Amino acid sequence: MRVRASDISARTIGDETIVLSLSTSKYFTITGVGTRLFELLAEERSVEDLVGVITSEYEIDADTARRDIETFLGRLRDAQLLH
């Protein structure tokens, strides 16, 4: 999966990313680790890829990372921001 780059406009300032869905005209704010995940999703990634990167960059165990990442991805899917 990856972010629908053709349908969005995004700007990151510090650890906050503002995303505009061009197809729905809705704004979204992503903060913290979510900003890093959003950056990683610029390329095709699996959940396992994301878990590997996040557990190597942050002090978090794989089970917690996987659960949080799946929740985050669900929100991106609900907002129609993922392929």
From TrEMBL:
It comes from Amycolatopsis thermalba. It comes from the Bacteria. This is PqqD family protein. Pfam families: PqqD. Gene3D superfamilies: Coenzyme PQQ synthesis protein D (PqqD) (1.10.10.1150).
